[in-house]
Each structure stands twice: as structure tokens, then as C-alpha cells.
Amino acid sequence: MVRSTFYYHFRKSKQPDKYAREKESIIRLYHEHKGRYGYRRITVEMNKIGYAINHKTVLELMNICGIKCQVRLRNYCSYKGRVGRIAPDLLQRDFAAEKPNQKWVTDLTEFSVCGVKLYLSPIMDLYNREVINTFARIPDSLDIVLHSDHGWQCQMKRYQLRLRQKGITQSMSRKGNCLDNAAMESFFGLLKSELLYLQKFSSIDHFRKELEEYIDYYNNKRIKKILKRHGPGTIPDSCHLNKY
Fold this sequence. Notes:
The chain is built from seven helices and seven strands. β4 (123-125) and β5 (130-132) form a beta hairpin. The strands form two sheets. Strands 5-4-1-6-7 form a five-stranded mixed sheet. The chain has a two-stranded antiparallel ribbon with strand order 2-3. The chain has helices at 3-14, 20-32, 39-48, 55-65, 157-165, 182-196, 204-220, and strands at 103-106, 109-113, 116-120, 123-125, 130-132, 145-148, 169-172. It is an alpha/beta fold and 244 residues long.
């Protein structure tokens, strides 16, 4: 090694790390989000807490710290069930809503945990992409459109009767068109990549606990670009969602 190069790196190693605070905050944010955030979202969070730092610097610092996003999106395929002409496609891939409880989407997904198959069928409000609990507590006659695929559960007579009793209009994707329910498919992709594939579960109860915590995290903390860097449950009144 050239002597000048050696002394250059020697002097540099003795200098204080000017990014020490930034590194500490990046590591804290990384672990706070359980490795689900990459450098872009961490950059947003860093800017929120007062750091004037760009995404390239955050990426470089993450590499220096030896951390990277643990999420790797996998192909998602949902079970479509028996296809029938139950309801028309009223959304026509228009996933924007002007107010809450105007357009809902739902679907069914399967988990295999500890050798047991579990099923989840959440409902999402397209106004802010928030996952809501159930329509049991929703007052009747709200003129809601509930969109789904042709899954068997959505074709059950009892299910359709319950929707009519609540004044909810049923809408269904076209056969073989998963993009007709893209908002729900996207949520399932995130759910499986950021929860199911990211950690191990010791029991069914453990998984259910982590699932509840993830949905709360998704609703109230996880930022989304489409929501102008807010979480579904934390959108300010001035933030209007125009297009999916």
C-alpha cells in the first residue's frame, strides 16, 4: 500500500463519525418495524423526526450497519372457488372512494401454521385502505358496495342475505382477473411477506397474536406511498385519496 494512502485511512479512522446519530436512529427504526422497512421508508421516517437526509445516504448507512429489508415479496395466488354469475363487477377497478364506508373489498386467504390450515377474510375500506373488523356493528342502509372475487364463501345464500339485510350491494371480480380486486390482493401479499414469511411461530395462539398486532401496525403505523406517507388509520383530513 502507498504510504500516503495508509496515513489517509489512518487519520480518517481517528475522526469522529459524523453520521453516528443517524446510524443510531436508522437501526432503531429498522428494529422498531421488525425489518419490514427498506431504505425508502426509513428515509421517510428519518425526515419525519427531523433528519435532512436523502435515500442514497440512508442506503449507504444501512449497508455500513449491515442491515437490509427482510421482506421479499412472493407470488400470491388466492383460491377462487366455484365461478358463478352472482353479482356484476361494480368497481371496474376504480379503487378510489370519496368517503368512509362507501367501497369495501374483501377476500379469503389461507395460512399454514404449525401444520394447521387457518383462514382469514378481512374487509378493507377503500377510502383509506384501513382493515376494519366486521360489518356487524355497521348501521343498516349505508349504501356500501362490497367487492370480492367468486370465492365459495361469497356465493353462499346466507352470506348474500346478510349483505342485503345491511343494505350492502355485492360486487364481484370477473373470472380469472385478480387485478379486479388488486387492493385486497396487495394487502395479502404484504401480510404474508411481512408476517408469515418473516418469522417463526411457536403455536397457533402465537400466530393469532402476531396477526392481530400486524393488522394494528398496518392500520396505524405502516406508511404507504399512496396515502402520502401516512398510515391508513392516520390520514389527516387534508389528505384525499384520488386513485389507487
